[in-house]
Design brief:
The chain contains 13 helices and 14 strands. It is elongated, with a radius of gyration of 28 Å.
C-alpha cells in the first residue's frame, strides 16, 4: 500500500461563508440529486478546492437498482448519474471499492496519493492515476438505519463522497478539513430528496404509477374513492397450478416472473397500469377518464394483439431451451369502476372494484372452455368504434353469475 504524503494548512482557507445554510436551503427545496451535487461541487471548487473529479455513491431501494453513482467534473456542467444493478458483477466491483472498505471497517475517511506508481489497493485508483490525478480523498457520512439491517443491508445507509486533484502537491489538509465540515449538510440535503425518491419507487412498484402518485400526494384515507371509466384487463396464466407441483421450488418464482414480464410488457408499452398481481394473474386498467376514449381503447387492443402474437414466440424459445411453458387467458372489458382506498383502518389497498371488474373476471374464466386466449366484451366493442374492424363476434354466451347472456368478441386474424 502506498505511503500517503499530505500537506496540512499551507493553502488559504476555502471561501465558504454561508455555505451550510445554502446547502440546507437547496435540500428543503427538494432539488434533484444531480442538481444538489453539481451545485455543491461547483461552489466548493470555486471556493478554492482544486477538485478535478468528485464522486458520490448512494444506496437505494429499487427492484432493479441497488445504488447510484454520481460523477462531477469541472466544466462539464451536468453530473453523470450511473445506476448500479444488483448483479454479481456489480456486487463484486463494490466489494473492491473504497466505499466498501470504509463501511466494512466502520471508518469514515481514506486518503491515497496517486502519483507513486502504485501498486494501488483499489482498482478505481489505477484509473484515476492513469488520468494524471495525484491525490485522492474519500469520506463516508453514515445515516441512522431506517430499519434493522436485513439480507440486503440498509437502503439508505449514508453517502460516500470522494474527490481527486491533479495538483502536484495534492490536497491541502486544512481545506479538506473544511470540506469535511460541510459534508454532513450535503448528506442531510441528499437524504431528504433520496427518501422521497425511495418512497415514490416503493409505491409505484407495488401500486402502479398512477395509484402510487395518488397515495404519495395524500390520497391515503380509507373510503377515498372515485368513479372512473376504464378498460379492464383481467389476465391469467394457464397451467401454473399443474407446473407448481412438478417444477422445483427454487425455479417456480423465476418461471412466474419470466411470464409476468412477457404478459406485462404490452400493458406498459401501451400506457396501461397494472394494479394488482393475483397469484398467477393480474388486473390492469387503461383509464378513459380525461383521455380520448377511442385512443385508449385502441391502445388496450394493441396491447392485447401484441400479447397474443408475442406469447407463442416466447413459448417457442422456452421449449427450445428445455423449459416448461404456459398459456394465458385475457378478458378485455370496459365500464365504470370505483378507484381508490379500500381495506381496514391501518391496512389499505389502492385498487378498482365494482360490477365491471367482476364481469371481466367471469369473462376471463370462459377463455379455457371456449378455447380462446383473448375474449372481449360487448361493452368494449360498443365504445371502441375505431377497433370494430379488428373484432369478430362469437355470439352470445352465458357468463357465470350474470343473468343475461353476453355477446363476446375475439381478435380477428
Amino acid at each position: 500500500m502506498p505511503v500517503d504524503h499530505v500537506t496540512v494548512g499551507t493553502e488559504p482557507p476555502l471561501a465558504l461563508d454561508g455555505f451550510a445554510e445554502w446547502i440546507v436551503q437547496r435540500g428543503l427545496l427538494g432539488l434533484p440529486l444531480e442538481d444538489q451535487l453539481a451545485g455543491f461541487c461547483q461552489r466548493v471548487h470555486d471556493a478554492g478546492l482544486p477538485m478535478q473529479r468528485a464522486n458520490m455513491g448512494l444506496a437505494t431501494l429499487h427492484p432493479r437498482w441497488g445504488a447510484h453513482t454520481f460523477i462531477w467534473r469541472p466544466g462539464f456542467g451536468a453530473v453523470e448519474r450511473t445506476p448500479r444493478d444488483r448483479s454479481f458483477q456489480q456486487l463484486d466491483a463494490y466489494r473492491r471499492s473504497p466505499a466498501h472498505y470504509l463501511r466494512a471497517r466502520k471508518e469514515s475517511a481514506l486518503r491515497r496519493r496517486l502519483d507513486t506508481g502504485g501498486p494501488f489497493d483499489f482498482p478505481i485508483l489505477d484509473e484515476l492515476s492513469a488520468e494524471g490525478l495525484t491525490d485522492y480523498a474519500a469520506r463516508i457520512v453514515p445515516y441512522e438505519p431506517l430499519t434493522r439491517r436485513g439480507p440486503q443491508g440498509d437502503s439508505l445507509n449514508g453517502i460516500f463522497f470522494s474527490c481527486a486533484t491533479d495538483r502536484p502537491e495534492g490536497f491541502d489538509g486544512g481545506q479538506l478539513a473544511q470540506l469535511d465540515a460541510t459534508l454532513p449538510y450535503l448528506a442531510l440535503a441528499i437524504k431528504a430528496r433520496a427518501t422521497l425518491d425511495v418512497a415514490q419507487t416503493v409505491v409505484e412498484t407495488y401500486l402502479g404509477a398512477d395509484a402510487g402518485r395518488r397515495v404519495l400526494t395524500g390520497e391515503i384515507q380509507r373510503g377515498a374513492v372515485q368513479t372512473i371509466r376504464a378498460v379492464i384487463w383481467f389476465c391469467d396464466l394457464r397451467g401454473f397450478t399443474r407446473l407448481s407441483d412438478s417444477v422445483p421450488r427454487d425455479e417456480l418464482v423465476e418461471l412466474l416472473d419470466d411470464y409476468f414480464d412477457a404478459l406485462a410488457a404490452p400493458v406498459h408499452d401501451h400506457g396501461g397500469q397494472i394494479l394488482k398481481f393475483l397469484g398467477d394473474g393480474f388486473l390492469a386498467t387503461f383509464d378513459l377518464t380525461g383521455h380520448d376514449d377511442q385512443a385508449a381503447c385502441v391502445s388496450a387492443l394493441k396491447a392485447a394483439t401484441e400479447l397474443r402474437d408475442r406469447l407463442p414466440r416466447f413459448n417457442a424459445s422456452r421449449l427450445a431451451a428445455g423449459k416448461p411453458v404456459m398459456d394465458f387467458g385475457l378478458a378485455v372489458h370496459l365500464g365504470d369502476v370505483l378507484y381508490g382506498n379500500i381495506g381496514t383502518d391501518d391496512r389499505l389497498d389502492f385498487t378498482v372494484v365494482g360490477p365491471a371488474v367482476n364481469e371481466a373476471s367471469r369473462i376471463q374464466a370462459l377463455c379455457r372452455p371456449l378455447g380462446r386466449n383473448v375474449l372481449i366484451s360487448s361493452a368494449f366493442s360498443r365504445i371502441a368504434r375505431d377497433c370494430r374492424q379488428t373484432l369478430k363476434s362469437i355470439g352470445l354466451h352465458e357468463v357465470p353469475d350474470l343473468e343475461e347472456p353476453r355477446e363476446l368478441f375475439v381478435l380477428a386474424d
